[in-house]
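re: ur question from yesterday

yeah so i grabbed the chain u mentioned. its 344 aa long if i counted rite. heres the sequnce exactly as i have it in my notes:
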Amino acid sequence: MERTKILVTGGAGYIGSHAVVELYEAGFQPVIVDNFSNSQESALTGIETILGVKVPFHRIDCNDVEAMRAVFAEEGSLRGVIHFAAYKAVGESVQKPLEYYHNNVGSLLTLVQVMREFGVEALVFSSSCTVYGIPDALPVTEQTPTKKANSPYGATKQMCEDILNDVAVAPGNKLRTILLRYFNPVGAHASAQIGELPLGVPNNLVPFITQTAAGLRQELTVYGDDYDTPDGSCVRDYVHVVDLAKAHVVAVQRLLDGKGATVETFNVGTGQGNTVLEVIRTFEQVSGQKLAYHVGPRRAGDVPAIYADVTKSVAELGFKTTATLAEALQSSWKWQQHLQAING
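ran it thru and got these structure tokens back, copy pasting raw so excuse formatting
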């Protein structure tokens, strides 16, 4: 039986590569678009090693409308798109706001235009819990008001959501969209063939932890221990990347089955928060490595605490995470050890 084709923009990235694997294993035919601005070609090798097949790949920038048209024309019969391609570092977005607006908002506009031209009507959009800003109450539900974003990165995700909601109510619209608001993805595939692969100094906590444990970084900085949280460090909802990838498969199937409203929003998290210091302690337990770290000043753009209410995604999307924080961190360490082994 012929597989249903799903275009995956940013499919060589951290979350994208795991989603490609889960899509294929669920019976879909993923097609990857990536320009390696924030990923590496080795992810394609990892995907092929896991699946035992080469996944179709196009090296292009999603802001390039002619290149995107060429992909849609060449592939034909695309039934849906998962749009991951975006810059994603909160701190960097404060330094480079223009680049973030151009890439993140521009690529969505280009994609939706080309989808309309080719009659592709199902879109899963990679959003973020940053759209909630600094919430008044926790946990956050999908009805929690979005507030002024704490960073240009968060603002681009809010804008993209606004664009997709506006498109949904326009006359003659046929696009159906699911907005997945991710909390903090961590971990790696159990095979240790794909995982988070930051270019240069990591912006995210867990790769900084694993690189410090591996001796690639001298020590880890905890940005602030004076927040109003259980131990003073920031609280986040850490979701295993494989669980997150599976949420995309469920979302794609929901769109193709014609279920739900024209635009739907779902939180994807575990439903509980962990502090940065808890993550460090848990990593030390599962890895047997003692981490060198110090407490530094607060970081611009950081929200003190946020974690998800997942009632809606469990009830309506039929999705629930299964992996624990310890399992996620263990897989991250296994991935780091794999990188050490192949890079020496």
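noticed a couple things. The first strand starts at residue 5 and ends at 9. also The chain has a mean pLDDT of 96.
anyway ttyl
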